[in-house]
DNA sequence: CTGAAAGCGCTTACAG
DNA sequence: CTGAAAGCGCTTACAG
């Protein structure tokens, strides 16, 4: 592979001049520039990013450590992160922790060894030692979705409190009184927060959240299945199961189905994190949707601000309830046009008539 | 951040000795080793991978360029690739092309600039110029899932021919005679191959595949929706729609539903690529399942063989049909045990009694 | 505007 | 077994 020396020789200039041309340094004669460009062309030269990084001490690379790539929520997050990073001239290396702190640790260390310019983390259960060390050592870092209390790092996340309140109001309105939740790991903020929001919303309706109605999950499908089985074995099973993420909802659905029960007739189901498939499950699933793409983009902007010396900003965006049929609501009345209506973009701001936070699904 | 010089000073040895200790070079005295390890500990020293890469001309990093991360098939592929790579001591950088050759090109160039040791590619439509150049230039490369004809690169993929034949037999047995397919981009191998396999399988039953029954898709949901609408507008619409990937099946489902039609009563649906959600869609969807994890692992092994100087092997693994209810089959008879049966691992080899290639879904 | 030279943090023949 | 030194491919003050 051609190096900068080869280009210099080919163009009849020094490597310094080649470097200046490549980096758009102003003091280069037009003639030198032309010859260098031509040499670059002829040789198909591409600068060695490894050498450049060693010299400049920056890699223009961001690390993204997420808890589970197989979760569609994180996949979408990863995608928007990469897109925004690319538009700002950064690459991103994704590390998938699979909800396991040791693997999170492995990725954080590897990423740091590669001298990435900054780290975006959605910490697993409690966070791994290496990740905590990095934060303390002052590595440019931003938490997305989940965060660790007491660690001084900007956080970009969705606030589901209002949406959970809307969900509980919806459930209560449908006559449900025994509501259960499948929580994520208590040590993750999204694990505990969603339970707390749920508990508070219940309290507002005079309902309690007994311990037996709190299933302990780990954000994976299998744990949703087990928690649901336990609920169904109760002397007084809940009327509703609210899964704190979409994979545990999948597991819950498996469990309900394995018992030969029906949703929502025998038991209602709702989930945190909306995904395209929820429109087509049997029945369509009521879910709380996060502004995932915007979260990813805001996180990258905060991190790049931090890296480039601007003050980074924590961001909290609202999640919203999307009502479907899995909680017992009759299907929304709809006409069936022969031609589907043209795509209608969501209006940027709700008009007064649309202020209800409860948004009805299009489907 | 501490460098090797700091460690050397702290341990009272030369940087050469530190390097030898770090790389497990045999000729180091026990005493020197001990002092170096202690210094490393005290300083929290981690070798700079960028510097090491520049010096050794290897990054122990693999690039993976996939056509669409949001597609669960590719997400799973990416995950297994990363796992296998990690176990072999490599990191992987994922580039998401979003089915667009320009973006594929961007990622290939960026990855090459970073001097990754090898490239795993699932080429978009026809492949991008940069990717083709890299292949010709002798960059260690392996194609996964899709490949480009005439490019001398090992291919790791699933063969769906048998499964498609099983699918058509299944459909024919259910009485369907007008079968349509939503194809992927003709320039992708998976796009054209699946159509050809389908056509051949139909021919074996004396059925034709008229042009009007070939929808042109791009592996994205929206294209599945449009193709399905076109089918439904036909004077004689098909009885079955077979989508060449899971996202187009989602779109097809959207379209069918928007017309107020039912699956499978009004139209049957099947998909290439099985995903966990297909168990819970309304109705559960009959699909062709690829051995995705094994594909990812085999691809990494082939690439690492190539990188480390061993002869890489192309691998073709069979896909298999998973029958559910979306094509009109009555739900399989099942008892509903109060306790779910214990997890049963799939036997490694089919016994004679199980040789039927058609596998019935567990659900 | 240009080039010679130093140096980023490592590894590795080479000499001892 | 150990260290001094060269060199990987760049960038960038410094001198001219």
TrEMBL record, chains A, B:
<feature type="region of interest" description="Disordered">
    <location>
        <begin position="324"/>
        <end position="363"/>
    </location>
</feature>
<feature type="compositionally biased region" description="Pro residues">
    <location>
        <begin position="329"/>
        <end position="351"/>
    </location>
</feature>
<dbReference type="InterPro" id="IPR028082">
    <property type="entry name" value="Peripla_BP_I"/>
</dbReference>
<feature type="domain" description="HTH lacI-type">
    <location>
        <begin position="2"/>
        <end position="56"/>
    </location>
</feature>
<keyword id="KW-0804">Transcription</keyword>
<dbReference type="Pfam" id="PF00356">
    <property type="entry name" value="LacI"/>
</dbReference>
<keyword id="KW-0678">Repressor</keyword>
<dbReference type="InterPro" id="IPR046335">
    <property type="entry name" value="LacI/GalR-like_sensor"/>
</dbReference>
<protein>
    <submittedName>
        <fullName>LacI family DNA-binding transcriptional regulator</fullName>
    </submittedName>
</protein>
<dbReference type="InterPro" id="IPR010982">
    <property type="entry name" value="Lambda_DNA-bd_dom_sf"/>
</dbReference>
<dbReference type="GO" id="GO:0003700">
    <property type="term" value="F:DNA-binding transcription factor activity"/>
</dbReference>
<dbReference type="InterPro" id="IPR000843">
    <property type="entry name" value="HTH_LacI"/>
</dbReference>
<dbReference type="Pfam" id="PF13377">
    <property type="entry name" value="Peripla_BP_3"/>
</dbReference>
<keyword id="KW-0238">DNA-binding</keyword>
<keyword id="KW-0805">Transcription regulation</keyword>
<dbReference type="GO" id="GO:0000976">
    <property type="term" value="F:transcription cis-regulatory region binding"/>
</dbReference>
<feature type="compositionally biased region" description="Low complexity">
    <location>
        <begin position="352"/>
        <end position="363"/>
    </location>
</feature>
């Amino acid at each position: 592979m051609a190096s900068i020396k080869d280009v210099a020789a080919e163009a009849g200039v020094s490597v310094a001049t080649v470097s200046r041309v490549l980096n758009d340094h102003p003091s280069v004669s037009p003639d030198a520039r032309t010859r260098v460009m031509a040499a670059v062309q002829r040789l198909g030269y591409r600068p060695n990013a490894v050498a450049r990084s060693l010299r400049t001490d920056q890699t223009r690379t961001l690390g993204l450590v997420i808890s589970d790539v197989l979760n569609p929520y994180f996949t979408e997050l990863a995608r928007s992160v990469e897109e925004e990073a690319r538009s700002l001239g950064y690459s991103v290396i994704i590390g998938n922790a699979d909800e396991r702190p040791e693997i999170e640790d492995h990725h954080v260390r590897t990423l740091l060894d590669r001298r990435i310019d900054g780290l975006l983390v959605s910490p697993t259960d409690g966070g791994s030692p290496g990740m905590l060390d990095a934060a303390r050592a002052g590595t440019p870092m931003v938490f997305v979705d989940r965060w660790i209390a007491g660690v001084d790092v900007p956080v970009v996340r969705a606030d589901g409190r209002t949406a959970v309140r809307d969900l509980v109001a919806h459930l209560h309105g449908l006559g449900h009184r025994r509501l259960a939740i499948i929580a994520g790991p208590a040590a993750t903020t999204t694990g505990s927060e969603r339970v707390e929001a749920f508990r508070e919303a219940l309290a507002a309706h005079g309902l309690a959240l007994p311990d037996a109605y709190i299933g302990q999950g780990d954000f994976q499908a299998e744990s949703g299945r087990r928690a649901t089985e336990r609920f169904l074995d109760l002397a007084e099973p809940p009327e509703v199961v609210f899964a704190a993420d979409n994979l545990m909802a999948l597991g819950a659905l498996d469990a309900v189905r394995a018992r030969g029960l029906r949703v929502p007739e025998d038991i209602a189901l709702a989930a945190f994190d909306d995904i395209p498939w929820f429109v087509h499950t049997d029945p369509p699933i009521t879910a709380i949707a996060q502004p995932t793409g915007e979260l990813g983009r805001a996180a990258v902007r905060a991190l790049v601000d931090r890296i480039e010396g601007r003050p980074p900003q924590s961001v909290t965006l609202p999640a919203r309830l999307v009502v479907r049929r899995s909680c017992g609501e009759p299907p929304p009345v709809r006409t069936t046009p022969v031609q589907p209506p043209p795509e209608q973009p969501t209006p940027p701001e709700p008009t007064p008539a649309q202020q209800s936070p409860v948004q009805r699904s299009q489907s």
